[in-house]
Amino acid sequence: MVSADLTHKEETRFIRKYWLESLLLVAAALFLLSAIGGRGLCMVFQENIQRYVQPFDHKGPIYLYFSAVPLQALPWLPIFIGAVVTSASGWKKLDTNTRWLAHVRGTAASMLPSQPMWAETIYAWESHQSQQEKLKAWLTNPGVSRIAA
């Protein structure tokens, strides 16, 4: 009985010591199995490249977008108008470098939802900025939401 109890304590100590590594190993194995057996890369290609040449989920004509896109953007119109008014009122007071930074940030923020690769690049760039540069960038374009602050 005593030897079984000692063996159990050693096993428990071993499990407690390596439980996180074991869990990560199992999670990595499950992820790799799903990545190898799944249609992940095929779907990425289909969603980002093939849909422009041969649409698979939207068979309607191109002019359907002229009515659908404005309706989908309608709830965000008040925020957009407020952002334009706020940005335009202080635009002439800014120096050239700050204007350029605001333009780049606004352009990047509008493109980020379309390409996750750009989001990762912007995040890597922002992580190397100082706090003062981040604050300046935030204040120069207040109407655009930030993904990584």
Helix content: over 70%
- Poorly predicted regions are 144-149
Content of β-strand: under 5%
Looking at how many chains there are and whether they match, the oligomeric state comes to: single chain
Distance between the termini: 58 Å
Main beta-sheet annotation: none
Would you count the extended β strands for me? 0
Order of H and E elements: HHHHHHH
Number of helices: 7
Shape: flat
Q: Would you tell me the overall average pLDDT?
A: 73
- Classify the secondary structure makeup into a structural class: mainly alpha
General description of the model:
The protein is mainly alpha-helical and 149 residues long. The radius of gyration is 25 Å and the shape is flat. The model is unreliable at 144-149 (pLDDT under 50). 3% of the residues are buried. It has a domain at 91-149. The protein contains 7 helices and no strands. The termini are far apart. The protein is 74% helix and 0% strand.
